[in-house]
Amino acid sequence: MGVLDRMFNGGEYKIMQEIRELANIASRANSELIKLVESSSKDIRKVKEIEEESDSKVFQLSNLISSGAVSPNVLSDMLALVQKEDDIVDAIFNLARGISRYTLPDKKMAARVKRNILATTDLVNQALDRLSKMEASGDVGEINAYRKDIEVFEKKEDEIKDELIDYIYGNDMDFKTFHYVEEIAHKCDDILDNCEDSADIFMSIMVSIMT
Q1: Is the pLDDT of residue 73 over 90?
Q2: Is the model's pTM score more than 0.85?
């Protein structure tokens, strides 16, 4: 019997294994986003399919959690966790949809935005890797270390966002370009915010079952 088996009851352990799949779904969505950005494609269908898969998984897990499969002291946090991990996928899809709506006419600006998005997707990959490791670990110290890593990635994304927003406020451009770039900057940040929130909720669950 593993560490997590001993921490959770049978129903909770099964649900935690299912929740880990949400991080894998998010990773696949992020991979499709990278392909879309690198190829300058506007075809977001694969990202949309993964987003719908995540919605279906969350609906299934939420029903399972609400049916009495988990202890009352972690029920609300588990429901919050599955919703927040779905929010990661939603944020990835929202970014893909935002990218597809407009083509920047200025090649220099387009290249800058592309670099920023790819920098974000790299941070997202790292954050999802740590989130998956958190959810597989039974050591609170290790879990907290992964959580702190995700916090660092989120702060790096804040810097990327702020740098891009500072750039558009400091340079002349048409309103459509300004609005598009500002929106993309915030959509990128939303993904890492949701990763950090997921890590915090999972940490809360682990503390609850150990106290």
Answers
A1: no
A2: yes
119 CB-near residues (< 8 Å, 6+ apart): 160
Confidence band, pLDDT 50/70/90 cuts, at residue 211: low
Measured between alpha carbons, how far apart are the two ends of the chain, in Å?
A: 21
Please check whether residue 137 is in contact with residue 203, taking contact to mean a CB–CB distance below 8 angstroms.
Answer: no
* Structural domain harbouring 206: 3-210
What's the pLDDT at 8? Answer: 55
Element (H, E) at 45: helix 45-64
Domain containing residue 131: CATH number:
1.20.58.220
42-73 per-residue burial string, b: 16 or more CB within 10 A, e: under 16: eebebbeebbebbeebbeebeebbeeebbeee
Asked whether the CA dihedral 182, 185, 189, 190 is positive or negative, the reply is: positive
Distance CA 150, CA 139 (A): 17
